[in-house]
Design a protein that fits this description.
121 residues, alpha/beta, Rossmann fold, 5 helices, 43% helix, globular
Length: 121
């Protein structure tokens, strides 16, 4: 079973994403900010991370830069899930190492298609 870490400061978004991912046969862990997410990745690296942009403590971009700059032997796919939809944000996310980008609100079909694009569905 593939694993996914959902990183979002919204409990509702984490719950919705968990439900969608579990119907797609993923095991799911959650973190409410980038710092918690880094800790989770040190414990067990997931196959994919759904990552929010705007969070307290450590933003999605700060987390992504730290993750991609780490010396972890395996790197997960990262899909930004955010309300930031301008081309500048999308380019910055891809440049920092994101594999894909999805707009909130999202649904099962959207998540499934993005996971297919990154080779995990």
């Amino acid at each position: 079973m593939k694993s996914c870490l959902v990183v979002d400061d919204s409990k509702v978004i984490r719950k919705v994403a968990r439900h969608i991912l579990e119907t797609l046969n993923f095991s799911v862990d959650e973190a409410e900010d980038g710092r918690q997410a880094l800790n989770r990745c040190e414990e067990a690296m997931p196959d994919v991370i759904l990552l929010d942009w705007n969070m307290p403590v450590m933003s999605g971009m700060e987390f992504l830069r730290a993750l991609r700059g780490s010396d972890q032997p395996t790197q997960p796919k990262v899909v930004f899930c955010t309300t930031e939809n301008d081309i500048g944000h999308i380019r910055a996310a891809i440049a920092a190492g994101a594999d894909e980008y999805v707009m909130k609100p999202f649904d099962r079909e959207t998540i499934h298609s993005k996971l297919q694009i990154v080779g995990l569905a």
